């Protein structure tokens, strides 16, 4: 049975970061719980709900932004002490709001993740993990990539301190003291960790993780290895997971999994069988869910899910019925409650309108005075630029704390803007001067009223690199704009992977020269996405990549003075050779470049491209036939006389048009890749075959795989 939940908006605080809202333990069974939330204005707000109204318990003064909020206390007692991370400092408050702790850590960066277990405090900056016990430094670990979250297995069950780090390079790092115990490979970059069932399950070893590409999974962290239990893909193409909680919202005695995503989806998964969880309920809000908790907030005896959104709204999905069944007395009582609430809201609205008019007059007077100083209103933008493995496109998500008026997108490299189903903005394109100004894309998205989140999709061309800029203008006065820049890298469609198939025919590029480990690492960062900016520890490093468009591979191994790059796609090697040479020349470093080309790799790459080429050519032909077939259908009245293949085109016309619209330049991209492969194959032999490109393009239309391979061999 699907739960019947009603939405209630309680309160709005400032912009909130991930995992900054918690529910304090209830004083009795089914009693209402207090809510505590920290925002980016540095304010910790604690409140309860009485008669549908938020009643404050305490509120701290503004300061630096709060990056995490956790509850703590002695083990096996109610966790009701409030800890917040502000910069590199941790502060502690009682449930009444009295500050009892101000701990300035030895971290040089701001705290990004925090976990508390009894007297143990686990903190993470971008790459650094620190463990403190009673505010005394215990252990330290330097991670190979950015740390997104941290937790520790319950000490009362596992009997030892076992911290787990969620790292951007698709790994969980399990620690013992200051040492790495082992690594766990995940299907995507983990963004959030939670103990299964809130306590790690029966063994205390079970961890639920959520990834930035929307996958959810459970793994058991034993003393020697990880045992994967279940994994749920992101079939519905929803947003990345930001928060997870366990709570029995269905009232069946088994805790459900509550999940909050960055596209505003709230999901409830329950365990109908002992195996994988099943999605039982979802609800869409208009902005990302920064924190999620299950508990009793609005009224005694009625459980609910409480979510904190990016712009600071605290929204509940409650089991309390909206329309109560009962006699006229109860209806009268309800209407009186409603009337008093409406009356208080009207009074509040009137006071706000008066205040706005006063402030507007004040601003007008100050702006017209001789000593006037223009003030630019500050606003917060939450942005994310990620590569999607499924369709080899980049998603740019822009979220603003207030309504967006328009977003101007500009790029100095060729990019395709793709359709996004969830996007309701109106897009208009402007003509560009690509030659003198290197301006290849200029598009404006005009947003509808109250749009606070905009998602765009772009597809890049490997080998062409530069910058994508987004100019974000919100609906605030005076008009102001923020510019956000995103790097399009030379091998932009490559994604990090844990391993590659070593049996494929590989081409090798070898570099030698007077360069440091940090210098060659900075060149790799410049060329490839998902490489940590910090130079890795040790003397040598290997990264593996997969091309999301073609499925070709790249292995990158380098150290001080030498680098080796292997790929089954000769075009990848060609791009690396050109870009790395250019970067070395900029720094006046002489490179000794050698390469080993495997002729078989070209045939192998063509075999990967050709099925995609055939599919896209067939799709294009079908789409071109649709209008003609529809005219025939109108003219003849029925289509029974048509061959079955033409009837199926008419039946699937809408899906075919939708697919073609989603990827308009797909075929041209494939033609471009085959052309580049042809040029690159002969470039390494010292032969210029650009004059034969027109012949290649002529034969591509409808040619089979063997003919294409024969053309490459004969040229």
From TrEMBL:
Name of the molecule in the record: BBS7 protein
Domain BBS7 helical hairpin: 599-712
Gene name, Swiss-Prot/TrEMBL: Bbs7
Coiled coil location: 335-362
Source taxonomy: Eukaryota, Metazoa, Chordata, Craniata, Vertebrata
Biological processes annotated in GO: intracellular protein localization; non-motile cilium assembly
Keywords, in A-Z order: Coiled coil
InterPro entries: Bardet-Biedl_syndrome_7_prot (IPR016575), BBS7_GAE_dom (IPR056334), BBS7_hairpin (IPR056335), BBS7_pf_dom (IPR056333), Beta-prop_BBS7 (IPR056332), WD40_repeat_dom_sf (IPR036322)
Residue span(s) of domain BBS7 beta-propeller: 21-319
UniProt keyword Coiled coil present: yes
């Amino acid at each position: 049975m699907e739960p019947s939940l009603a939405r209630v908006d309680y309160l709005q605080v400032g912009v909130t970061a991930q995992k900054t809202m918690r529910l304090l333990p209830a004083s009795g069974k089914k009693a209402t719980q207090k809510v505590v939330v920290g925002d980016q204005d540095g304010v910790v707000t604690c409140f309860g709900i009485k008669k549908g109204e938020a009643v404050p318990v305490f509120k701290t003064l503004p300061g630096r932004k709060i990056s995490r909020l956790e509850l703590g206390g002695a083990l096996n007692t109610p966790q009701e002490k409030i800890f917040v991370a502000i910069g590199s400092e941790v502060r502690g408050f009682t449930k009444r709001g009295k500050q009892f702790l101000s701990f300035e850590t030895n971290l040089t960066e701001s705290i990004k993740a925090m976990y508390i277990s009894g007297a143990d405090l686990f903190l993470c900056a971008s790459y650094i993990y620190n463990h403190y016990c009673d505010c005394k430094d215990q252990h330290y670990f330097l991670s190979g990539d950015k740390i997104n979250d941290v937790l520790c297995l319950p000490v009362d069950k596992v009997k030892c301190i076992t911290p787990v780090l969620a790292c951007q390079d698709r790994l969980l790092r399990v620690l013992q003291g200051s040492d790495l115990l082992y690594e766990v490979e995940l299907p995507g970059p983990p963004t959030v960790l939670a103990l299964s069932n809130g306590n790690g399950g029966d063994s205390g070893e079970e961890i639920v993780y959520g990834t930035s590409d929307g996958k959810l999974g459970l793994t058991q962290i034993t003393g020697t290895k990880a045992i994967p239990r279940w994994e749920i893909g992101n079939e519905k193409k929803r947003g990345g997971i930001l928060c997870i909680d366990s709570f029995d919202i269905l009232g069946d005695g088994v805790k459900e999994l509550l999940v909050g995503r960055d596209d505003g989806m709230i999901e409830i998964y329950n365990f109908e069988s002992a195996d994988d969880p099943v999605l039982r309920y979802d609800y869409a809000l208009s902005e990302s869910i920064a924190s999620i908790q299950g508990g009793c907030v609005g009224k005694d005896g009625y459980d609910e899910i409480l979510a904190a959104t990016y712009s600071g709204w605290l929204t509940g999905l409650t089991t309390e019925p909206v329309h109560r069944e009962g006699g006229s007395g109860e209806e009268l009582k309800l209407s009186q409650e409603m009337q008093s609430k409406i009356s208080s809201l009207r009074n509040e609205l009137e006071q706000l309108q008066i205040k706005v008019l006063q402030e507007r007059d004040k601003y007008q007077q100050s702006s017209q005075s001789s000593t006037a100083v223009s003030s630019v209103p500050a606003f917060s933008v939450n942005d994310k630029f990620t590569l999607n493995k499924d369709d080899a496109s980049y998603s740019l998500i822009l979220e603003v704390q207030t309504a967006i008026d328009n977003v101007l997108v500009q790029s100095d490299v060729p990019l395709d803007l793709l359709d996004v189903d969830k996007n309701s903005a109106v897009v208009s394109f402007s003509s560009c001067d690509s030659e003198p100004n290197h301006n290849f894309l200029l598009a404006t998205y005009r947003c509808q009223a109250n749009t606070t989140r905009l998602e765009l999709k772009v597809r890049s061309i490997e080998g062409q690199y530069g910058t994508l800029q987004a100019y974000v203008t919100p609906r605030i006065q005076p008009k102001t704009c923020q510019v956000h820049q995103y790097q399009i890298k030379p091998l932009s469609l490559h994604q990090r992977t844990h391993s590659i198939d070593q049996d494929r025919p590989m081409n090798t590029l070898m570099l030698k020269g007077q360069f440091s480990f940090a210098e060659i690492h900075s060149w790799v960062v410049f060329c490839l996405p998902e490489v940590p900016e910090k130079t890795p520890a040790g003397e040598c490093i290997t990264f593996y990549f997969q091309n999301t468009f073609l499925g070709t591979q790249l292995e990158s191994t380098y150290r001080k003075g030498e680098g080796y790059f292997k790929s089954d796609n000769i075009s990848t090697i060609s791009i690396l050779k050109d870009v790395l040479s250019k970067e070395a020349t900029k720094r006046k470093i002489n490179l000794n470049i050698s390469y080993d080309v495997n002729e078989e790799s070209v045939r192998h790459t063509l075999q990967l491209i050709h099925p995609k080429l055939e599919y896209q050519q067939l799709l294009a032909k079908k789409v071109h036939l649709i209008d003609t077939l529809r005219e025939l259908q109108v003219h003849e009245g029925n289509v029974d006389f048509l061959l079955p293949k033409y009837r199926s085109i008419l039946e699937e016309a809408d899906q075919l048009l939708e697919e073609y619209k989603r990827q308009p330049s797909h075929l041209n991209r494939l033609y471009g890749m085959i052309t580049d492969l042809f040029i690159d194959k002969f470039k390494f032999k010292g032969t210029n075959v650009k004059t034969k490109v027109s012949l290649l393009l002529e034969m591509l239309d409808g040619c089979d795989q063997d003919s294409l391979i024969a053309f490459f061999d004969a040229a």
